[in-house]
Amino acid sequence: MKKRMIDRYMPIGKLSRIKDFLPPPSELVLPEEKIKVTISLKKSSVDFFKKAAERSHTKYQKMIRELVDRYATQYSAVK
Q: Are 53 and 62 in contact (CB under 8 A)?
């Protein structure tokens, strides 16, 4: 007789269906108006972000954009 294989990833016990609580994809990314700008940065600053982005497996422009957005959000709330 063959020994029965047990899949450790299979659920154990009684299962119950839960309500879908995730938003649809269209609600995950809210469109926001963007504009392109040209900016001159110090080479050392760009090198810093390039290295940090490489370690984080992302793009350095995205990191800089996020930094500027957070700074603007933080200080636009303070009046």
A: yes
